[in-house]
């Protein structure tokens, strides 16, 4: 019952956001069509910028998979991952998501391609990636911009919160998708 | 990232030498490169649509409106900021823009807030408590709709790619709230900043 509701909200959230934004725009007399087109140009720029990163990561991970190295690691640690019901392929996603947003998107694509878009590993990876931010990049940019050299408790906070996020992602995905 | 990437490729070629799968590795290069372009193309469409909608939210003042609603909450989280400082408003805007996935708008707001916080910082070399809280908000990255992830799922033909929207929202909320709790706890445990330390260096 709750799961059906969650599915319904997931499905309706995007259409509702779009509708609210458009109605608000019209009420405020914003030229919605021109503004949309202007913003959409950014989307093209984003995907062109991201392409080199995708090529770098997807090619490297495809090579790794084809070589059999991932299976070797999987076999070595299969007990641990099985106990936690986490597919071994998710491990790189958990690590890289704090380092590079484009790279983790490449890893996600690789998992979705390999296991199928409706598989549990794909959904788990999607939830992990969809709920995360590239912690180290943010720290570098924000502190770099004002010349802060001592991060004090910001770094540890970022890492601990990322761990909390991963635990939550695994728990929620296991409950909903397994 | 340099070493990680190098090791991925290095290990695959070395492993392939042992497992005798070098032909599979070579064709993986070609397949991987082709797949990347397909994903980027798919991403282009969905990102263009989503950012187009979000630009309307920005231009119509909706983002600003929500940021205003959140300002009292932001003030609570940043007791160090004096009244009348523009930093609180910038922080609220930064959070709201991030939530809407407008990272191009969020980052400049966040950096502006950092500048304001640096002005009232006692030690210009080390992060003030307020800065750490702002960073906690940003590294936890609260986001309403993960558009790129949906695009990737959709590009591989997922039956219901938006299925992950609410689960991701639940997780991002948990991560965000735990970031705030953690930062406030660590704030108490971390040695305080030196008064005017670093001014001379």
Overall description:
The complex is a heterodimer of chains A (178) and B (201). With 178 residues, chain A is mainly alpha-helical. Chain A has one domain (50-177). Helix content of chain A is 83%, strand content 0%. Chain A contains 9 helices and no strands. Chain A has helices at 2-27, 32-67, 69-76, 78-84, 90-96, 101-115, 120-130, 135-146, 153-177. In chain A, helix 2 crosses helix 6 (101-115), helix 6 runs antiparallel to helix 7 and helix 7 runs antiparallel to helix 9. With 201 residues, chain B is mainly alpha-helical. Chain B has one domain (32-189). Helices cover 74% and strands 0% of the residues of chain B. In chain B, helix 4 packs antiparallel against helix 5 (103-119), helix 5 (103-119) runs antiparallel to helix 6 and helix 6 packs antiparallel against helix 8. At the A-B interface, helix 1, helix 2, helix 6, helix 7 and helix 8 of A face helix 1, helix 2, helix 5, helix 6 and helix 7 of B.
Short structural summary:
The complex is a heterodimer of chains A (178) and B (201). In chain A, 83% of the residues lie in helices and 0% in strands. Chain A is an all-alpha fold and 178 residues long.
